[in-house]
Amino acid sequence: LNERMQRFTTTIFAEMSALAAEYGAINLGQGFPDGDGPREVLEAASRSILAGENQYPPARGIPALREAIAEHRSRFFGLRYDPDSEILVTVGATEALAATQLALLEPGDEVIAFEPFYDSYDAGATLAGATLVPVRLHAPEFRFDADELAAAVTPRTRMILCNSPHNPTGRVFRREELEHIAELARAHDLVVLTDEVYEHLTFDGRQHLPIASLPGMRERTVSVGSGGKTFATTGWKVGWITAPANLIAAIATVKQHLTFVSPAPMQRGIAAGLALPADRIAAIRDGLQAQRDLLLDALTRAGLQPFVPEGGYFVVADIASLGFTDSRAFCEELPRQIGVAAIPMSPFYRDAAAAPTLVRFAFSKQPQVLREAGERLRQLA
Ligand code: PMP
Ligand code: GLN
């Protein structure tokens, strides 16, 4: 392994899922649902396989999916993208993020990202020979300080990487926060790469606001989506990018040498999902909000201190209230001790000591599974 990738060996998600499997623990670590999503989605992909759509599809994605992405982005968020020139289908959001960094960054460039950050952001920047510069989201609200953000910009800054709703904190960025980011991006001519894989999964009436919809931002924003989270198909790895034609052309150049194309039948399935009426997607969101509430209740009863997430799949909780001091040691013991797996927050920080007692739990699980996890967690109290 080359030197620059030495820091990125086994991801924390793989590590904790392996421990969960070893001890037969309830896996509240890696973020994936334990049930299937809408029938329409599953049937469309199955039909596609049986209809013989089993060879390489078009490079930028099947037209039906690119049209569905354009229609969906316009219907839900009022953003218009041309399916032929401004949309690229990828192998999950992961490829979308890495391909964008590989296409747009030069070695030595800097990428600002909000910390804690999803692990692949730093890996993607590093693959491109660039450096990730963290700007802290401060607990308990996980908001950034506008002065700290402004101070992070240097002559080498090329990109700001945003993620809202945010993994791992569950924060949904407010309009005024997005405006701060947009103002800096315009002033310093930066690209904004925005990871919006949880765009539909917002709670308590909150709405996701795409940063591309702010004035002067569409032309400099690369927006990333995924079918995995909304439609409970994380194993399908269908993601997409919407961006201006010049940026899509650059990213498509890289994508063709990473994976060439994305699997055709799964694209059919996700196209069916994106076409679902708003009330079906709202029902998915409401179900997840109820699961969030179950897990919040379970964590509180166990004596932990959870931060209430506004969106996404995860709750962050502080284990200091129970006298624990090391989240990694806690998560390494938990599957064996009580049969529950979770993720320490340290890998989401540049400095592993930054949040020594924060742990992330996924609530994308069936209610009875969350209840059982709650029973087990009570052994901690
Ligand atoms: N971004 C975020 C914030 C995520 O949480 C995830 C997956 N959990 C991804 C990207 C990766 O998405 P995909 O599985 O579509 O590659
Ligand atoms: N994104 C998921 C999470 O945050 C996991 C994806 C992965 O395992 N790479 O848990």
Q: How does this structure look, described?
A:
- 41% of the residues lie in helices and 15% in strands.
- With 381 residues, it is α/β, with parallel strands linked by helices.
- It starts with 11 loop residues before the first helix and ends with a helix.
- The longest helix is centred in the last third of the chain and has 24 residues, at 278-301.
- The chain has helices spanning 12-23, 39-50, 63-77, 92-104, 119-127, 146-152, 175-187, 227-230, 245-258, 264-274, 278-301, 327-338, 367-377; strands at 26-27, 87-91, 110-115, 131-136, 157-163, 191-195, 221-226, 238-242, 305-307, 314-318, 340-341, 343-344, 358-362.
- It has 2 domains: 3-30 and 279-380, Aspartate Aminotransferase, domain 1 (Alpha-Beta Complex), CATH 3.90.1150.10; 39-276, Type I PLP-dependent aspartate aminotransferase-like (Major domain) (Aspartate Aminotransferase, domain 2, 3-Layer(aba) Sandwich).
- The chain has 13 helices and 13 strands.
- The model has no long low-confidence stretch (mean pLDDT 97).
- It is globular and about 55 Å long.
- Bound molecules: 4'-deoxy-4'-aminopyridoxal-5'-phosphate and glutamine.
- 4'-deoxy-4'-aminopyridoxal-5'-phosphate is lined by residues 31, 92-94, 118, 163, 167, 195, 197, 226, 228, 234, 237, 239.
- Keywords: Aminotransferase, Pyridoxal phosphate, Transferase.
- One of its GO terms (molecular function) is transaminase activity.
- This is Pyridoxal phosphate-dependent aminotransferase.
- InterPro entries: Aminotransferase_I/II_large (IPR004839), Kynurenine-oxoglutarate_AT (IPR051326), PyrdxlP-dep_Trfase (IPR015424), PyrdxlP-dep_Trfase_major (IPR015421), PyrdxlP-dep_Trfase_small (IPR015422).
- Pfam families: Aminotran_1_2.
